[in-house]
Amino acid sequence: MPKVIVFGSMNMDLSIDAPRMPAAGETISGSGFLTNAGGKGANQAVASARLGVPTHMIAAVGADSFGGELVAGLEAAGADCSLVRRLEGVPTGVAVIVRTEGENRIVLSAGANHALSADDVVPDLRRIGEKDDVFVTQGECDPTATKAALRAAHGLGLYTVFNPAPARPAPNDLWPCVDLVCLNETECQTMCGVLPEDARTCEEAVRRLRALGAGAVVITLGAAGSFGLGEDGRPTFVPAARAERVVDTTGAGDTYIGALAAGRVRGLTLEASMRWGAAAAAVTVSRLGAQQAIPTAGEVGVAL
Ligand code: RIB
């Protein structure tokens, strides 16, 4: 079976529930504080590994206790961490998350996530990447390294998945190296200037992203589902799967993307992978935290 290779962030998430956002200079009481493994890249790797697909992580953490915990957790989820560096003198990435009324507000400290350069990542990809593997990356690592990695992976014949999160405008010459871009509403607006709100605006956003050079496009619309267009040019809408309850949406988008990548490795169509992503994300939102909330194949009802 081909594998999923993720180049991305690993963060320790410090997450708390607040009744509302405090005003400037105000202190309010929160509840449900937790410290748990996160980072968009590592969350996507966990989702892919828990869905039974061989998954390799390329990343960096600090030589501190958070870094050790993150690597141990990712290995326990089944991902290969032999290309995760533990760097002296640089802290592990941290995300401070305030959960209010079902929404998250996140402040990042990138730390070691910005330490890897193209000279680190590209040789790693050349060493382990094989044609038909799926390469996944996001926007929480050094942008130059991320672009170089996409270019190298594409050149090696890997299927490249780009999740431009957090949203930041991408250089025009990045898009032709992207086989599938998966993005939410705000990321979509930043990338192509269209806020996807209905079928017409989704189609317009997809048209613009493909005009930039992206292959397939998937736009996630939260509780409204997801809209996709594969290389065959066929638009697909997949409704969100019903969650038992919504406890914490952290990592739901990452779960969806990990499932898209895993579905591709398993030879599913884009539509079937989107359905898989929707089912897995519905489980993630029903539980607290990021990686600790991401389901296994069995929990999503998928036979391996
Ligand atoms: O997408 C959710 C993730 O974003 C969190 O786990 C946090 O670490 C930030 O990277």
What's the SSE blueprint?
Blueprint: E1 4-7, E2 11-17, E3 31-38, H1 40-50, E4 55-62, H2 65-76, E5 80-87, E6 93-100, E7 103-109, H3 118-128, E8 134-137, H4 143-155, E9 159-162, E10 180-184, H5 185-192, H6 199-212, E11 216-220, E12 226-229, E13 235-238, H7 252-265, H8 270-285, H9 297-300
Parallel strand pairs: 1-4, 1-8, 2-6, 4-5, 8-9, 9-10, 10-11
Antiparallel strand pairs: 2-3, 6-7, 11-12, 12-13
The protein binds alpha-D-ribofuranose.
Notable features of this structure?
about 300 residues, alpha/beta, UDP-N-acetylmuramoyl-L-alanine:D-glutamate ligase, nine-stranded mixed sheet, four-stranded mixed sheet, 9 helices, about 35% helix, binds alpha-D-ribofuranose
Measured between the Cα atoms of the first and last residue, the distance is 12 Å
- Based on the coordinates given, report the CATH architecture: 3-Layer(aba) Sandwich
Overall domain count: 1
Helix content: 25-40%
Enumerate the distinct ligands: alpha-D-ribofuranose
Q: So how many helices?
A: 9
* Unreliable parts: none
Task: Provide a descriptive summary of the structure in words.
There is one protein chain. This protein has one domain (4-21, 31-303): Ribokinase (UDP-N-acetylmuramoyl-L-alanine:D-glutamate ligase), CATH 3.40.1190.20. 34% of the residues lie in helices and 25% in strands. It has a nine-stranded mixed β-sheet with strand order 5-4-1-8-9-10-11-12-13, with helices on both faces. Strands 3-2-6-7 form a four-stranded mixed β-sheet. The protein is built from nine helices and 13 strands. The chain has 304 residues and is an alpha/beta fold. The chain has helices spanning 40-50, 65-76, 118-128, 143-155, 185-192, 199-212, 252-265, 270-285, 297-300, and strands at residues 4-7, 11-17, 31-38, 55-62, 80-87, 93-100, 103-109, 134-137, 159-162, 180-184, 216-220, 226-229, 235-238. α4 links the parallel β8 (134-137) and β9 (159-162). The structure holds alpha-D-ribofuranose. The site of alpha-D-ribofuranose (RIB) has 15 residues, from β2, α1 and α7.
